[in-house]
Amino acid sequence: MDAIFDIELKLLLEGVYLRYQHDFRGYAVSSMRRRVQQAMEHFECSSVSQLQEKVLHQPAIFAQMLQFFTVQVSEMFRDPTYFRALREVVVPVLKTYPSVKLWVAGCSSGEEVWSLAILLEEEDLLSRALIYATDINPDALRAAEAGIYPLDRIAQFSKNYRAAGGTGSLSDYYTSNLHDARFDRRLREHVVFADHSLATDSVFSEVHFISCRNVLIYFNRELQNRATALFHEALVRRGFLGLGSKESLRYTEQAAQFVEADRNERIYQRL
After folding, report:
1. Which of 122, 127, 131, 129 is CA-nearest to residue 94?
2. Per-residue exposure over 28-64, b if at least 16 CB sit within 10 Å of its own CB, e if not
3. Widest CA span of the chain, in angstroms?
4. Cβ–Cβ < 8 Å for 268, 258
5. Helix H or strand E encompassing 240
6. How far from chain centre, in Å, is Cα 108?
7. Best CA proximity match to 118, nearest among 155, 81, 88, 162
8. Which ranges of 58-129 does DSSP label H, i.e. alpha helix?
9. Rounded CA gap, 83 and 116, in Å?
């Protein structure tokens, strides 16, 4: 049964690529199995083939499937020591440029983007910065651009912000009602939200810093190499790349093109 499941899974991913030009064929198989099984339960399908029929013939179903194909779990200032390292290691170098461009690849619902904008504002750098926030999921991009989060998440966001070296109060950057917190639109003025796939798209700009955290762990080795080659191409000389706590450049084809700027926080610098 597992062998048949994997055959059907390959056919599903090939069909999605041919029908919608979204390429998930290079994603880690074990992770994709779990996500497709969850999708089968959600759409009440007894087989992957049955799910494939719905996905290929109903674009609205495919739009919903993106929630299963992509991981949408994040929080503001997630892993606070990472953001503290950005303040201490990356920002001093960024300040030496007259203007800077930053890229958050796989921005999900935007928590990291807004966190980075707040950090740059506090470091007096946002006014000459442009942040590209990209993802393949249009619903996630819309949520990221809105910058509205449930009020019950704000306590954890605020705790992370303080631990990350925040110089004020997170409440300085949002307005709230009984249910939601809406982040300041002045921060939004320095962000460009756009669709971009690390699996199929090319470099779109030269940037000084890239943050792609907890994305590469869902890719197979070939797709990891493709993504890190894009990052190397996009970065200026001595530009920085930040990865997730469980990710590394060590076994990628681009490993020799970077040095560790902060080993503990997985921040690399392009040679």
Report:
1. 129
2. beeebeebbeebbeebebeebeebbebbbeeeeebeb
3. 59
4. yes
5. strand 235-243
6. 5
7. 162
8. 59-69, 80-85, 91-94, 111-122
9. 8
10 Å Cβ neighbour count for 252? Answer: 21
CB 106 within 8 A of CB 244: no
Residue 68: predicted pLDDT: 87
Residue 91 CA to residue 158 CA, distance in Å, equals 21
Q: Is the dihedral of CA 129, 133, 139, 144 positive or negative?
A: negative
Region for residue 44 given its phi and psi (left: phi exceeds 0; alpha: psi -120 to 50; beta: otherwise)? left
Hey, what amino acid is at 22?
H
* CA pseudo-torsion sign 194, 196, 201, 203: positive
Q: Which residues contact 5 (CB under 8 A, 6 or more apart)?
A: 33, 48
Give the separation between CA 261 and CA 266, rounded to whole angstroms: 8
Question: Is residue 124 within 8 Å of 197, Cβ to Cβ?
Answer: no
Counting Cα atoms < 13 Å in the Cβ hemisphere of 240 gives 26
- pLDDT attached to residue 31: 85
Q: In this predicted structure, what is the pLDDT of residue 117?
A: 98
The 10s digit of each residue's pLDDT in 99-134 is 999 999 999 999 999 999 999 999 999 999 999 999
181 phi and psi angles, rounded to 5 deg = -120, 130
CA distance 181 to 5: 43
Q: Which amino acid is at 72?
A: Q
H/E run at residue 31? helix 29-42
State which amino acid sits at residue 149. Y
Residues in the chain where the model's pLDDT stays below 50 = none
